[in-house]
Fold this protein.
Amino acid sequence: MFWKSLLFAALLAHDVSAQGSSGFLRFGCSQLVVERIDPLVNPGVNPSPHTHQIVGGNSFNVTMDPYTIDPPAQSTCTSCIYTEDKSNYWTASVYFQSPENGTFKRVPQMANGRLNGTLLEQEGGLTVYYMRPFSGKNMTTTAFKPGFRMLAGDPTLRSKTGSYPGICHRCLAASERTMGGNGAPCDSKDTASFPSKPCLGGIRITVIFPSCWDGKNVDSPDHRSHVAYSPGSSALAGDKCPSTHPVRIPQVMYEIMFDTTQFNNPDYWKDGKQPLVYSFGDATGYGAHGDYLFGWKDNALQRGMDALGNKCGSEDCTSVLKIQAGKDAIACTKSQQAKEDVGTDTCTYGRPHCWNTANIYFRA
């Protein structure tokens, strides 16, 4: 959980003295469903190639056709704490591959940043940030338009070359398990690859989306070209956008907590090898990615972004946005559209939805 360190640094750097000032909204979303559906990359495909965990509005479906699906209007609930947020956020599942027999087991998730008012005491789901640049200037941040969607990362990557600066893994100490760790995201303590040693507090995965938009297209064929990161070495928003993408948008970031502690047997982590693999067959971690589909009601997100540092703090924007009880967010779930068992069971050759990748069989 980077927010305390980052906010403190911002206050020092820019002399922002207003009590409760914040450059971001931060809140929890419980798990809506785990299934092989991906309406961004594989619209209409059931089942899609690999397993995702999805959070947000329950209008989520196989296509999410922007011409027929209006998430704020058609979702009857949201698994996110702010009731006006019917967006969908999804990421790939992580599996443990047994070095002993080659079988796979889905790694359970855990709550992130517990003891905070807008986060959730749940297993599964993720923490969402909507950030604006930490700058002394009053910079306009334009909320997304209806139908907007984007992808961060590239699931085909298998090496550090070309890896995304805003997608990383943090190996948590045992003392960091409850609050998720401190420090800015994707700094020197993080790696683009999976950690190479057992993590006593589990693993926190961070996905940072671009912060600049071309101002015209709500999507693009690769789901990336209509957005861009700020110039510089860090994925975090700077005070400039490239001329090709001049519109500043809220920077979305995910934190996902995986409880890998049951797999910390030293025998699983010998000779620099690690036993984790993403559901799309990536045992390196470089292919980590996230999908985003905008679905805030009316101008709620714009209200929230405009109120940051004034009426809204990072953990509390209830003076501007509507919040629901954590139990109600957790109760918002959806039945699978791709019907299959995606629990923490093992998967071996010959079972449904298992296939061979470099002589490894696993549930996708």
Observations:
- Confidence is low (pLDDT under 50) at residues 2-21, 344-364.
- The radius of gyration is 19 Å.
